[in-house]
Amino acid sequence: MPQVVLINPLIPPNTGNIARTCAATGTELHLVGPLGFEISDRYLKRAGLDYWPYVKLHYHESIPAFTNVYQQRGGRCLGFSVRGNCNYVKFQYQPDDWLLFGSETTGLPDTVLSACHHLLYIPMTEPHVRSLNLSVSVAVGLFEARRQLGCLD
C-alpha cells in the first residue's frame, strides 16, 4: 500500500494528526529530518493521542538516508506540491507509491521535487489561498490513493 513521507515537517500537531491518520489506515509513515520538533514533543504526542503504538513509524535523519531506503524497497515517489502538474484525482496510483509532502512553510525542497516521478497538486478554487494544511493534504492524497486501489472497504 502507499506510504506517507513527510520531509522536514515543522509543526508537531500536524505530524501528530498525520500519524493518527496513518495508524487508522495501517499506512507506514516516514519522517525525514531535520524535524522542527523532537519526536518526544508533547504536542506531537497529544495530536496523535494514544494511537502511537499503532503507527508504523520510520525516521530517516536526512533526505539521502530516506533515498537509500526508498531505492531498496522500490516504487514511485509522488511529490504533492502547489507546483504540481497533475491533479491528484486524475492520477493513477499504484500500491508501492510513496506520497511525499514537504514542510508547512516551504513545501518540498527543489532537490526532492526534481527526483519525484510525478508531481501532483490538490486543486483549490480561491487563488489567494496558498495551500491547504499539511495534515489535510496528506489525508486527501492518501484516501484518494486508497480509494483507487480498493482499500476503503
Structure description:
With 153 residues, the protein is an alpha/beta fold. It has a single domain, classed as SPOUT methyltransferase, trefoil knot domain (Alpha/beta knot). The chain contains five helices and seven strands. A seven-stranded parallel beta sheet has the order 3-2-1-6-4-7-5, with helices on both faces. The longest helix is centred in the C-terminal third of the chain and has 15 residues, at 134-148. The two termini are 14 Å apart. The relative contact order is 0.22.
Question: Can you give me a brief rundown of this structure?
Answer:
The chain is α/β, with parallel strands linked by helices. It has 5 helices and 7 strands; from the N terminus they run E-H-E-H-E-H-E-E-E-H-E-H.
Low-confidence stretches: none
What does the overall shape look like?
globular
Query: What name is given to the CATH topology?
Result: Alpha/beta knot
Give the DSSP E fraction (strand runs of 2 or more residues).
15-25%
Radius of gyration: 14 Å
Helix fraction by DSSP (H/I, runs of at least 4): 25-40%
Instruction: Write down the domain tally.
Output: 1
Largest sheet: 7 strands, parallel
CATH superfamily: SPOUT methyltransferase, trefoil knot domain
Rounded mean pLDDT score: 92
- Number of E-state strands: 7
Oligomer: single chain
What's the order of the H and E elements?
EHEHEHEEEHEH
Q: What would CATH call the class?
A: Alpha Beta
What is the spatial order of strands in the main beta sheet?
A: 3-2-1-6-4-7-5
Number of helices: 5
The secondary structure category is alpha/beta
